[in-house]
Amino acid sequence: MLDTIHAIETPEGVSIELKPAGPSPRAVAWVIDLAIRLTLLLFIGLILNLLLDKTGYGLWLILFFLTEWFYSVLFEVLWQGQTPGKKIMGLTVMNKDGTPVSWGPSLLRNLLRVADSMPLFPLGNEAPPILPLYGLGFLVCILNKRFQRLGDMAAGTLVVYTGEAAHKNVVHPKAEPTPPPQSLSLQEQKALITFGERSDRLSEARTIELAEVLTPLTGKKGWDGAQKLFNFAAWFMGYRK
After folding, report:
1. Buried b / exposed e across 149-186, counting CB within 10 Å, b at 16+?
2. Among residues 132, 165, 198, which one ends one of the domains?
């Protein structure tokens, strides 16, 4: 349960690891976006009030509605899954399969922010409940290992750390793509790819230990055997000389 990494696999058999962002950085990103929206609305509201008086106020209400509902949608779709707040915090919205978020999922996840914002807090005895506490969204977020709020669950989206979201592990840099001497099953190919991708995270001793399990395939022992496996992995990942 402590492992929050979301691993997906492309049709080519390449593994991609996404690191979901928890509620804290997402909350900071939301506050940044809120400040941007309020500043923008205040500035435009003052101009419209000076130029158009009551008509300007009506236009401002329309702008407020559009900004409140579509600010995040427009940025997430047109700005590669990031609002200004998310960009500052190094976060990205994407589909669970690692593909860029599109109009439908983005619209759905943002419309359901209403449910996530419950309960609402009244600002005064006679004031309507207009201040969202996001208690429900926070609770749902911390109770699932992908840190998805209700909108994310419904839309099939994740908020992940940007640098690691699109990261694809690569095979050992000295690998030379080489086809194996015999045909391998899809499961065996995936195992080789995983071995190659993790080459930079294993000690030399551990790498050799794992490689020697496949000595019958490589015909080599020690680091030479590991290098041959890296070559096979590079071949299956689509690299060519």
Report:
1. bbbbeebebbbbbbebbeeebbbbeebebbebeeebee
2. 165
pTM: 0.63
Give 202's DSSP letter. S
Residues 6+ apart with CB under 8 A from 32: 84, 85, 88, 89
DSSP per residue over 49-65, as a string? HHHHHHHHHHHHHHHHH
- The band of 32, judged by pLDDT with boundaries at 50, 70 and 90, is very high
Q: Coil, helix or strand for 127?
A: coil
Q: Are 197 and 158 in a shared domain?
A: no
Look at strands 15-18 and 129-132 and give their pairing: unpaired
pLDDT tens, position by position, 38-78? 999 999 999 988 888 888 888 999 999 999 899 999 999 99
> Same domain for 98 and 153?
yes
Rounded to 5 degrees, what are φ and ψ at 123? -80, -15
Q: Is the bond preceding residue 179 a cis peptide, omega within 30 degrees?
A: no
